Amino acid sequence: NKRCGLLNKVCLLFMDSVTLCFVTVVSSNTAFYRAVIGSDVILRCLFTELPLQQSLSKITVEWYRVDANRDRNSVYTFEDGRALVKRVGAEVNQTRLLHSDASLTLRNVTVRDEGTYTCRIITPVVETVTNTLKVFGMDILLSTPTIIQV
């Protein structure tokens, strides 16, 4: 392993002297999102620009959520040019993927959607982006403070 700033390169040397490198970009930044029950939300996941003429079949995107119980749940996977949706209403725009954008749209959010979402992209560079989603009921947003006189 060699450390290069935020890049952690792992290179494998094969018998025929071909070197294959996987690069992990680690970011300590977590974006925080708030959504109202029943609304749609987009969790951002931008990654390093793709090489020219990169095809969708060469991109892997994995979105998973860790909930309050620390259970890890797969939400969406894109691999070999195909999407596997584990949460109804979850979508990554495939056209945007070619423009280094693997943002996840969650339609009709519920309280069950709360948690920490991780986006993992392999192009063969491996990058991760973390987002935290908090979901509120409409009554929280519409309520007014109560003044209590003593």
Task: Describe the overall structure.
It is found in: Cell membrane. It is a single-pass type I membrane protein. The protein has a single domain, classed as Immunoglobulins (Immunoglobulin-like), CATH 2.60.40.10. It has helices spanning 94-97, 138-142; strands at residues 2-4, 7-13, 19-25, 30-36, 41-43, 60-66, 72-79, 82-85, 90-92, 104-106, 115-122, 126-136. The strands form 2 sheets. Strands 1, 2, 3, 4, 6, 7, 8, 11 and 12 form a 9-stranded mixed beta sheet that branches. A 3-stranded antiparallel beta sheet has the order 5-10-9. The model is unreliable at 1-28 and 141-150 (pLDDT under 50). The termini are far apart. With 150 residues, it is mainly β.
A few lines on this structure:
This protein has helices at about 95, 140; strands at about 1-5, 5-15, 20-25, 30-35, 40-45, 60-65, 70-80, 80-85, 90, 105, 115-120, 125-135. It is mainly beta. It has one domain (about 25-135): Sandwich (Immunoglobulin-like), CATH 2.60.40.10.
Number of strands: 12
The radius of gyration is 19 Å
Give the class from helix and strand content and strand pairing: mainly beta
Mean pLDDT: 77
% residues in beta strands: over 45%
Shape from CA axes?
Answer: elongated
Distance between the termini: 65 Å
Subcellular location: Cell membrane
GO biological process, one term: positive regulation of T cell proliferation
Membrane topology: Single-pass type I membrane protein
Pfam family, one: V-set
